[in-house]
Design a protein that fits this description.
alpha/beta; Aspartate Aminotransferase, domain 2; 7-stranded mixed sheet; globular; binds pyridoxal-5'-phosphate; pyridoxal phosphate; carboxy-lyase activity; decarboxylase; lyase; Cytochrome d ubiquinol oxidase subunit I
Length: 501
């Protein structure tokens, strides 16, 4: 055949050394292999030199502008595409890898997790169901999770995107448990409209959203007052439940927090578990980041009562440092979990033998059918680091938070707004117009690249929030952050005085 008579598709694809014989594989694997090694080395270099880089830098407008490119009809060389990645994407992440990152509740990732995720992508496994080893790995994680939380053999577990999804699944399982499987066909109906759920006012916003998505409406979540440390006031909760019952409403669910997002408060889970048992309520715990503190012998006692929950939502991608995303929902009664999601479909027919066999079909336990192999990066992380070391990282973050708290207390310029209950400290620079000044300090810090704390409101006052989740963060990073707060604070106060004068 003449070269010019080749189909057009082949001619286009071959120009990028990828797409041999009409496939998407390379004609010459050795070229791709060398390129792949460069990409891997490049990423190792990035991780090894994090501290020399800014925590965060805003993507410049010319870099952003590049990402309005036309649809790439023709292939480009992989080398070129990777070069664009290196120049325009890699330097402008959100900073959560960096030891100076103290904003929000985010994990730092690990090189082991990165490598495992590459292997998972190579396998391209679909964990919706059927009979293959990746599903056995997800079940292995399920066994470990049951062991960590001391849950029974027949408890069920499922990887999900994150705790937002885990909390939604918990609400749906609790809904089906109280209203029966018929709710799935008929909706929540008149009885469902009278159901009420309870949490502290410090609970994460995704719990109200879960109530909304489950058809109850977000106002069906009663937000109960907290004590001074932002733990739910159990007596106020008891009173709210009694008041709702008197009104003819039907309490069905209590959501406890194991580590609130603002200050890291842990509700009295033992008291909540006892009350839910006594009142016949579903007890779910949002343990997004705090639940896995069970891995630390120092922190686990703080979570007493967690093992009595009916369900727990948590993230491997936060404090356990597994790369995004790796959320998890654990349900004590696996049958009830399944009853909320399993549905017959001819194309998902289960067989007793062959590839369509296998007893664990994750699509029976959540809304997703196609699912990636989140279990693999988690399996690698737990094995390669060991759970004791992962727990020790959490305890070290807490020790750093106590160190930060001590430094704040020792500096007359600074005021502690929320003490370190776990690994989050809220404070501010003392000043007139302190809300405005501290908002500017937070932005100054982030834009300086020195550190990236976030902010929140504590009792109506603007707070600088340092959330210590990164396993790379050292005492010197905390010191650098404090030094920068003092410097920017003095500058900002000077400017405000000038403006006022
Ligand atoms: C992060 C977080 C969530 C939400 O989890 P995602 O994994 O982001 O969906 C819920 N609750 C708490 C306490 C959190 O910290």
């Amino acid at each position: 055949m003449q070269p010019d008579k080749k189909p057009r598709l082949d001619a286009r694809a071959s120009s990028a050394d990828l797409g041999a014989d009409g496939t998407l594989d390379p004609a010459d694997w050795s070229v791709l292999r060398a390129q792949g090694h460069r990409m891997l080395d490049d990423m190792f270099d990035h991780l090894a030199s994090l501290r020399a880089q800014p925590t965060w830098q805003p993507p410049p407008s010319d870099v952003r502008a590049r990402f309005h490119a036309p649809l790439p009809l023709a292939p480009q060389s992989l080398d070129q595409v990777h070069d664009e990645f290196r120049r325009f994407i890699l330097p402008y992440g959100s900073g959560n890898l960096h030891p100076g990152f103290m904003g929000w509740v985010q994990g730092g990732g690990t090189p082991v997790g990165m490598l495992a995720d590459m292997l998972a992508a190579g396998l391209n496994a679909n964990l919706g169901g059927r009979d293959h080893m990746p599903l056995v790995v997800e079940q292995q994680i399920g066994e470990w999770v049951r062991q960590i939380f001391d849950f029974p053999e027949d408890a069920s577990g499922l990887f999900v995107t994150g705790t937002s999804m885990a909390n939604l699944i918990a609400v749906l399982v609790a809904r089906t448990a109280i209203l029966g499987a018929g709710v799935r066909a008929s909706g929540i109906g008149a009885r469902g409209a009278g159901l009420r759920a309870y949490s502290s006012s410090a609970v994460h916003g995704c719990v109200a959203q879960a109530m909304d998505l489950a058809g109850f409406g977000s106002s069906s979540l009663r937000r109960i007052a907290t004590d001074r440390s932002q733990r739910i006031d159990v007596e106020a909760l008891r009173a709210a439940i009694a008041a709702d019952r008197r009104e003819g409403l039907e309490p069905f669910l209590v959501v406890g927090s194991a580590g609130t997002v603002d200050v890291g408060a842990i509700d009295d889970l033992q008291a909540l578990a006892a009350m839910c048992r006594e009142q016949g309520l579903w007890f779910h715990v949002d343990g997004a980041y705090g639940a896995l503190a069970m891995l630390s012998s120092e922190l686990a006692p703080r979570l007493a009562g967690l093992s009595e929950a009916d369900s727990i939502g948590f993230d491997f991608h936060k404090w356990a440092q597994v790369p995004y995303d790796a959320g998890y929902i654990l349900v004590r009664d696996g049958d009830r979990h399944r009853a909320a999601f399993a549905a017959p479909a001819a194309y998902l027919r289960r067989e007793t033998r062959g590839l369509a066999g296998g007893s664990f079909w994750p699509c029976d336990y959540g809304p997703d059918l196609s699912r990636g192999f989140r279990a693999l990066k988690t399996w690698f992380t737990l094995k390669a680091y060991g759970t004791e070391q992962l727990g020790a990282v959490m305890a070290r973050n807490c020790a750093l938070a106590r160190y930060l708290e001590a430094r704040i207390n020792a500096l007359p310029e600074l005021e502690l707004l929320a003490p370190a209950q776990l690994n989050i400290v809220c404070f501010r620079y003392r000043a007139e117009s302190a809300d405005e000044v501290n908002a500017e300090i937070v932005a100054d810090l982030q834009e300086s690249g020195i550190a990236a704390p976030s902010s929140t409101m504590i009792d109506g006052r603007f707070a600088i929030r340092a959330a210590l989740f990164n396993h790379r963060t050292q005492q010197s990073d905390v010191d650098n952050m404090i030094d920068a707060v003092l410097r920017f604070g003095a500058e900002r106060v000077g400017k405000h005085r000038l403006l006022a004068g």
